[in-house]
Amino acid sequence: MSIQFIGVTKEYKNGSNIFLALNNISFEAKEGEIVAIVGPSGSGKSTLLNLLGGLDRATSGEIIFDGLNLSALSDKELTKYRRDKVGFVFQFYNLIPNLTAYENVEVAAELNKNSLKIDEVLEAVGLLDKKDKFPQELSGGEQQRVSIARAIVKSPKLLLCDEPTGALDYKTSKEVLELIDKINQIYKTTIFIVTHNTSIASMCHRIIRLRSGQIIEIKENINRISPKEVEW
Amino acid sequence: MILNKRIKRVITLNKAQYIGLIFLVALSISLYTIFSSLAFNFNKATSDYSRTTNIEDAKFLTLKDLDINYIENTFNVEIEKRHEVDVSYKSSTIRLIELTNKINIPLMIEGNLIKEGEIALNPAYAKANNIKIGDFIELEGFKYKVSGFVSIPDYIYPTKSLSDLMADPTKFGVAIITSKDILKYNNLTYFYSIKGDVEKVKKYIDENYKILMWQDIQDNLRYVLAKKKIEQLPQLSVKIPLLFFTLTFILLFILLRRIIKLEIKEIGTLYALGYTKLEIQKHYLFYPLIISIIGSILATLFTITLQKPLTNYYVFYFNIPVQSDVKYKFILYGLLESIIILSLASYTASQTLLKHSPTTLLRGKISKDRLTFLSGLNLEKLKFNQKFKIRESIRGISKILTLIFGIFTASTLLLVGFAAKGSIDALINKTIKNTLNYKYVYYLNQNINKNSINQEGFKIAYFKDKNSNENIIVYGLEENTKSLKLKKGKEEVKVDKIYITNSLYEKLNKKNNIELINLFNNQELELKIDDVVDVYTGNVIYMPLEDLNKIINEERNSINGIFSQQPLNIDSKLILKYESIDETLKSFDIALEPVKYMLVAMGILSFIIALIVVYIVTSLIIEENKYTISMLKVLGYYENEINSLMLSFMLLPSVLGYVLSIPFVKGFLNSILKTSLKDINLAIPIEINPIYSLFGFAIIYTVLLVSKYISRKRIFKISMVDILKLQNE
């Protein structure tokens, strides 16, 4: 299984103005890799992630994942794709405020018959003892752990993380990165991390650098370091 | 102010919500205006009617012919002799009445006053028998041209006999013809009508001419019943729209507050840009103003369209000429109330928001999601979707209350209609079907011995209450009567004591001793009432036959009425009147036919209102939960699954709103009907048939389903990407 972007363009129209968020980009990533998408604000990182996650559609080009051409899928098929194959982790966690930590994970577990046991996943992220707490009773780091638990509980093949440490302090950020790395090792999940923090890229297998909607560099990271060693 | 340019855009963007609000305003103002104008027009019509028709103070018959001129001059009264005759037309009876010009002057509702060879009929009879102006009809050998439709003051409610409860226009009508025409008939009867100080002259007439019959106008049910109905029913029909008007505006207040509160970020932006609180509040006052003005314009259109047909419907029922003018002052009141209430909603909503700093408002949330004591509920054992719905309900108590109130308002309107139908059904069932166990009843014009027939006999005697002057009928019955089933609750009672009907009890408000005057011989007597029975029509007392005979000094076994299961072969000279239960039921059916149309109209109206309310509430729920819905989409939930998760919680509050409206409607109707109906010898038991209740809820449930279906589109429109971008702490 691999992930392929072939000549993908994404335009946003605003009246008569057309904004090119991604301009004819192509790349390939392998199964089980952690891929870093880096670049300055407005370079198209989040757009790329949204297209890969089936949240949005490319204007042209093909996105192939696990044999599926995402561009050719109907809305319903795209929903099924997200439901079965993709997990999301966001910068601001996006937990549902009136559900407990356990229920926030359950909201994703419900979608897949082969979901992992919620208690086990919460234990894996170190939050089993806080499973009955509501998001507002948890710290930022704890909320992000719940968000990760929610993303992985349905054992997705693809985990997409949009600035997962963007709202966290240094220490908590490193704990979250270690967790992501652990998931990659245990479940062999392919992970894409969008970040403007270039240091995080050093723990990834592959680094894609974007600027103004175009790829300026694709690098295989042969000197990958562990999350513990990442410094910024 | 440049800012005001966005008003149109905001309204266009949320057009469904604003159209809903405008329609609610329009419906409630137009209903209020239509019925208030109707009441105003009817009040004017009744006072004009009494004045222009110069209605009699009494009607009488004497043994010798009166010297009218002498009496008029001596006693300063007006007297007029009037002939009447009953003729057959097809299978019905028309009572031809001589055209008078002093007292009881007929009033044309439509067409022209009669000339010789012409006839004018009461409109309900003409309609029921398909007779139109310009038609020719032949009555017992004489041909007449129909010149118009008329209202005869002492026959406003045209019942054939004075004791009839309901008019049956298919069987009986009244008409006027000229004196010359009426004198062509044989078998004429006549009465004298008198207007003026009757007490002084009555004694003189009795002494000199011997009064055979005397009926004060207050005892003429054809006039009294109609007058009271006319005076009270429009008032009654104002109270229901007024209730609806009040409920709707409370609801509008709640809904507009929520809609304005959704503008939190925009208000925050304006505040941050340097707009003052006053400028922002002024801007948001335009919304209620626009809703009120457009709503009132629509209300005016609805009113103009509906006022005339509705007035005609009432005129047909009550048989007096009424203008169908719209009283625009009521629309103005509605507009003012709408502006005041909605502006207050907008002002308080923006005021609440503007207490906070611009930075707080820009975050899109005034406070972090608060945990309530209910958040700690242990829901572990429930399925996920049940947990989600419960959590959603706990979080939005205020939206649940809004929904409960919205459904309560729509259900109230719906159930008022159902209660009216149910109560009338109950009245018919309890009073006629369950009480009267005979098929035919014969009233005799003389006493016979009960043992001379092999049917069940009874005695009927006519009295009036000394204090209230109410006419009261007393029945003397066999102790084990099989023809009347008198019940108290579920228990059937024997006629071994003296019972009073529920309607008479409610009117006199006592069941102890009643002082009666015998209408036949003016003898006074006092009756001790033992109990009340569940009969809801008529001023009636039931007592043992022998006891009644004893107090009126008649032979103990004498009777003047017969109950029977089949038609009897009795000498027609003996029969004063005969009634068949099937015909009585049929006349109820005819009289209640319009109620069915009213029910359908109310059903449609409450469906529309419920749909508007539920749609606005659901769209607010979707708007307020955009973020959660977006997140569920990201996770891979299908739209119908999201729809079910987000909106299914509405069922329970809707059930609650509906259930709460049942006792409210019963209480409301009981309170208004008690005052309105007691004068017309009815005490309607307020009942909502369980089948109607279920049907009513089926309507509300359909509204929920339709609203959920429409909401799918809104859910579909929520973008996953945009919402995630907007999301920040």
Automatic annotation (TrEMBL), chain A:
SMART domains: AAA (SM00382). It comes from the Bacteria. GO terms for cellular component: membrane protein complex. Pfam families: ABC_tran. Keywords: ATP-binding, Nucleotide-binding, Transport. The keyword Nucleotide-binding applies. One of its GO terms (molecular function) is transmembrane transporter activity. Residues 3-230 form the ABC transporter domain. Belongs to the ABC transporter superfamily. This is ABC transporter, ATP-binding protein. It comes from Thermobrachium celere DSM 8682.
UniProtKB/TrEMBL annotation, chain B:
Pfam families: FtsX. The keyword Membrane applies. It comes from the Bacteria. Keywords: Cell membrane, Membrane, Transmembrane, Transmembrane helix. Residues 240-358, 601-719 form the ABC3 transporter permease C-terminal domain. The chain crosses the membrane at residues 21-42, 236-256, 284-306, 326-347, 400-420, 597-622, 642-665, 691-710. It is found in: Cell membrane. GO terms for cellular component: plasma membrane. It is a multi-pass membrane protein. PANTHER family: INNER MEMBRANE PROTEIN, MEMBRANE COMPONENT OF PREDICTED ABC SUPERFAMILY METABOLITE UPTAKE TRANSPORTER. This is ABC3 transporter permease C-terminal domain-containing protein. It comes from Thermobrachium celere DSM 8682.
